[in-house]
Amino acid sequence: MSENHTGTAAPTLLERDAGLLWHPYANLDAGALYCVNSAAGSQLELAGPGGSHRVIDGMSSWWSAVHGYNHPTLNAAAHAQIEDYSHVMFGGLTHAPAVELAERLRAAAPPGLEHVFLADSGSVSIEVALKTAVQYQGARRRAGRHRFLALRGGYHGDTLGAMGVCDPVDGMHSAFPGLVAGHLFASRPPRARFEPDAGNAEGGLWAYDTEALEAWEGQVRRQVAETTDTLAGIVVEPVLQGAGGMYVYPPQVLRILRAIADEEDLVFILDEIATGFGRTGKYFAGEWAGVVPDLMCVGKALTGGYVTLAALLVGQKVARVIAASDTDTILHGPTFMGNPLACRIAAASMDLLAIPDAGGAPAWKTAVTALQTGLHTGLQPAMELACVSDVRVLGGIGVIALDRPVDVTALTHAAVRAGAWVRPFRNLVYLMPPYVAEPEELSRLCSAVTGAIAEVHA
């Protein structure tokens, strides 16, 4: 505690927080572990147990701050928009930041995703996607089609509709019986591993059990055949299931699901909220399979972590049917839809990703390739720990799987003392560093995390 003007000890920020602010997925009285004093580049300055700590952020603030913190280009975009106007309603009005962002999204998206619906957050974009798929089926005079096929292990957000298509057993919606809709869940596809290889045109090779994949496809096709009349669409996180366990599966799965959607006239939805904007090694993870969804949700890295914003990209098939229907509109309209401040920052963030390097490659590709190389090298020593069951890397994502649940608090403190900020869950310690992390920072980050695991769990 510090001393106030009365001479008594004033409570610290952490003490004032405890019991006042309810943090995500945390006990009310637990409060926070550290407070942030400053942030710049890939580093945070934290205050808490042991005093001040300068740490490398291994989380990109839950996968969003891809350009790091306090970036001059994004700062300038924010200041410039605030000087004009920070918000105006989007009903009946438009503005340059929204139009310019939508143009960038359409240009970056797979061909055919021609239309953009702006939303408040990733979860809200999923809500809008689900509603849009149901509207599509309703416009096709199939009122009974209101359920979705999703994958076990999936995670799509914490709002009610999104929660309904999350894993029904290991996900959080099992705590809300009767409140969320009942959908159809396919088992997880077989696990895949991506092996980086600079000499390969794709930057590496995918390895998986082809027989297991064939068996999985047969099972899914049987499930769909039994329930087609009730299904509106299919919703999945492409290639990587994030909060459901950082689980990597074969790109071929997306081709299978795209084919099923076409055969049964289901709306195929890709949740690219965590995987979009280069994180997996492709600008959008669906590109690993070469598939184009009917609807695609993006968020998180969209604004470089500066302010909340998401978008739903809509394909022509769905757009034409809804536009010609009795309602002729997507029935959703958030108050802060198309927020000019968020849109201008997002457009600037997308421009940063596109800047070419000396060889002409876009900045995001160069950065993520370097992250993949650094993570692959830096995390290998973790395999020598007896408590580690697996180490896997895909693009700018590194995962260390333990053979036991992580002691989250103890490991977080150990990592901070070693110079890294991480947020483990279940049996996983994972890294999604900012794209701007320097090689030396990445090496320190990997060493700190490996050392923290050894200290707490070895």
UniProtKB/TrEMBL annotation:
Single biological process term from Gene Ontology: biotin biosynthetic process
Modified residues (N6-(pyridoxal phosphate)lysine): K300
Pathway listed: Cofactor biosynthesis; biotin biosynthesis; 7,8-diaminononanoate from 8-amino-7-oxononanoate (SAM route): step 1/1
Keywords in alphabetical order: Aminotransferase, Biotin biosynthesis, Cytoplasm, Pyridoxal phosphate, S-adenosyl-L-methionine, Transferase
Site (Participates in the substrate recognition with KAPA and in a stacking interaction with the adenine ring of SAM): Y25
GO terms under cellular component: cytoplasm
Key word S-adenosyl-L-methionine present: yes
Function: Catalyzes the transfer of the alpha-amino group from S-adenosyl-L-methionine (SAM) to 7-keto-8-aminopelargonic acid (KAPA) to form 7,8-diaminopelargonic acid (DAPA). It is the only aminotransferase known to utilize SAM as an amino donor.
Protein's UniProt name: Adenosylmethionine-8-amino-7-oxononanoate aminotransferase
UniProt organism field: Arthrobacter rhombi
Lineage per the UniProt record: Bacteria, Bacillati, Actinomycetota, Actinomycetes, Micrococcales
